[in-house]
TrEMBL record:
GO terms for molecular function: DNA binding; UDP-N-acetylglucosamine 1-carboxyvinyltransferase activity. SMART domains: HTH_XRE. Its main location: cytoplasm. One of its GO terms (biological process) is cell wall organization. This is UDP-N-acetylglucosamine 1-carboxyvinyltransferase. It comes from Ruania alba. InterPro entries: Cro/C1-type_HTH, Enolpyruvate_Tfrase_dom, Enolpyruvate_Tfrase_sf, Lambda_DNA-bd_dom_sf, MurA_subfamily, RNA3'P_cycl/enolpyr_Trfase_a/b. The lineage of its organism: Bacteria, Bacillati, Actinomycetota, Actinomycetes, Micrococcales. It catalyses: phosphoenolpyruvate + UDP-N-acetyl-alpha-D-glucosamine = UDP-N-acetyl-3-O-(1-carboxyvinyl)-alpha-D-glucosamine + phosphate. It comes from the Bacteria. Cell wall formation. Adds enolpyruvyl to UDP-N-acetylglucosamine. It is an enzyme of class 2 (transferase).
Amino acid sequence: MTVIDDTQTSLAEIGTLIRGARQNRGLTQTQLAERLSTSQSAIARIEQGSQNLSVELLARINGALDADLLSIGTPRAAHLRVTGGQQLSGTITVKSSKNGAVALLCASLLNRGRTTLRQVARIVEVDRIVDVLRSIGVRATWSADGKDLEIVPPAELDLSAIDEEAARRTRSIIMFLGPLLGRESAFNLPYAGGCDLGTRTVEPHMIALRPFGLDVVATAGQYEATVQPDRPNEITVVLTERGDTVTENALMAAARHPGVTTLRNASPNYMVQDLCFYLELLGVRIEGIGTTTLRVHGLADIDADVEYAPGEDPVEAMSLITAGIVTDSEITVARVPVEFMEIELATLAEMGLRYTLSPEYPAANGRTRLVDVTVRPSELQAPIDKIHPMPFPGLNIDNLPFFAVIAAAASGTTLIHDWVYDNRAIHLTDLTRLGADVRLLDPHRLDVTGPTRWSGAEVSCPPALRPAVVILLGMLAAKGTSVLRNVDIIARGYEQLQERLIELGAQIETFRD
């Protein structure tokens, strides 16, 4: 259920909820229209967020979908009640990449033409960026089924009208720096927000963008940016951090630089490759995709009508595979981007996980390699070596937290070393509330000893996305009833995760108090 308050909830968010509930009940737009005595086109407008909704119509939609999706009044936090210890079964499909979608939304500002993104993840993080784009004059229109997004920037952006509330609630706003420096001589952006993961400096972004003439001064909650017009034809940037968003920012700056840019120590991760594939459609030539050295042949002006489908999300894939592992279930996770999961799967094989892979097949973008992964009940053992993340092609930094709950299901002690983030390991100690033996050695290292006799508990959601999902997955394994409070952060990175887990047999109820 979502509470409707004009100052806090947009029609687009309401439309997303209605579309998801309709699809989960197996209804077409026409069938829902019949229940409401309206037209299919009206349902399409509602789900697209382009039609005003009366209180009476909201109540009828609740009734037609047999759901408590929407109510009127003061917003209240959402909670999940989980009846754990249930084996899961069936097939679940990985959705497109959230991080890829966010980068592509920012990159659409480079293009004076029309960008159509296919099968976009409908999550809070995406909606916030769309809200920011619309506020500065970009026309962003969802398709009738809510899956595709058409983006057309105006000739001149109105940055003075930027939606500061939406901008401050996402770290992704920092990725506006790269595309904007190719369009504006001076501009302001609100400070970036996002998850509570300790200090995450923006200085690597500044180092990467200074060679393109960007100068940024932080004052009174704003990034005040100026761009110097003179720059050499050939630019070489050595990134001091092989970060995904840093690389993306530099790539977007290079795309509109009418010369050749060499990026060294670049991230070759999945969202960076998605961005490269999109830029190639715009006419930007890029050498070295998938490596740590990129040569970008930029264009002073980009005006192209293009369509692109982001690749599937390896972090969501890892989440779903973990759900099967910790519940001792046989499930198939379809459309797994295997290139970005190979170290994770090799580590799981070392721990004794029984799984099979289908033959490879291409994603909708024609570039990403996909497989279906079937996991089976297994006797897991702690790995001999520690589990730690590395830049791609190492174990994904965002996938590391899932190994904490997997290690809790394995026999023996596993050392988890999260060297990237200051506080994330601390959030994973909440697994002790569910019966796990998790010892915090320091802010970056955990000892996890299993196997765990999971038991239900009430836990407040950690203020970080991946640990929050890890606690939810632990609750799926725990016999009895658990309550996960204040789960809104999960919607930042997952589209209807609990509803999709329910389709596999999980018993999860959303409630508010």
